[in-house]
Amino acid sequence: MAYREFADLIKAINEGIEVVLVPKATRIIVQKLCELGWLFRKVKGYITERMDRFPAEDVGTVGQAFCAALQDELLGYYKLLAVLEAQAMNLIPLVSENSSSGNSLSLRRLSVWYSELMVKMRLMAVLVDSCKVLKGGAMAGAIHMHAQHGDPLVNDFMKRLLRRVCSPLFEVVRSWVLEGELEDIFAEFFVLSQLVKAESLWREGYRLHSSMLPSFISQSLAQHILRTGKSINFLRVCCDHRGWADASTEAAAAAGTSIRRGGLGYGETDALESLVTEAAEIIDKHLLDVMYNQYKFKEHCLAIKIYLLLG
């Protein structure tokens, strides 16, 4: 016993306070169990605070998905509490009794029951602290950094969480790459749109938003995603052409993915790269065909050349 603890004990005895001596091992177990409750309140408080503010821009759809995923993970905590409450009804037999204590609940058994949940709860608390001021792709990237873990339990937990968190992000990617539409009302995507005139749409209408680029998408892949979506958007807006829809379907089929919602998700980076590559190749070919055949781009350039050289 430390000197300060001993001094506090003597003081309590002198003041007539009833003192119960608890073994150090028991105190450690109790402290760990109390930590679980503190972690739960921390995570639950974050979820409540964020969801009460939705649809604020600093929360966004990715933040909402993160809170929903955390809430689902807390269901395991509630279920375990219900089981342990039933177990707690079984009284622990006295040492003098010969009855088995197999169904009784002790602090040590409680600690064992909560060991796996403690790992998850600590991780959720770390994620909550990491994502307090983040949103969109930046939030997804920060969570992804914690997924690089050697523990299979942590790895599986993070993958399950990230599939939920990244779902809105990959839906925007799918819509942009295959339809040329950017529905990003909370500015969470790594492609940023700007209101410009039609003649400036290609050069100034869209650009990369680097701070929202998640770490699991490379800069080169992001550039391909930007350009592919711009090509379809250019066909839709500037050329008033609808043939891009068939080209998008062809690209998705060639990449082995679906054009419907949910066709892409976290952990499918290879599928995303394949889709973007196929879409870029097919859409670019289609765009050039429209420019050269429908709008006679080559003939216009030749006419300008003749005018400049011959007047």
TrEMBL record:
It is found in: Cytoplasm, Cytoskeleton. It comes from the Eukaryota. Keywords: Cytoplasm, Cytoskeleton, Microtubule. GO terms for molecular function: gamma-tubulin binding; microtubule minus-end binding. One of its GO terms (cellular component) is gamma-tubulin complex. The keyword Cytoplasm applies. One of its GO terms (biological process) is spindle assembly. This is Gamma tubulin complex component protein N-terminal domain-containing protein. It comes from Buddleja alternifolia. The lineage of its organism: Eukaryota, Viridiplantae, Streptophyta, Embryophyta, Tracheophyta.
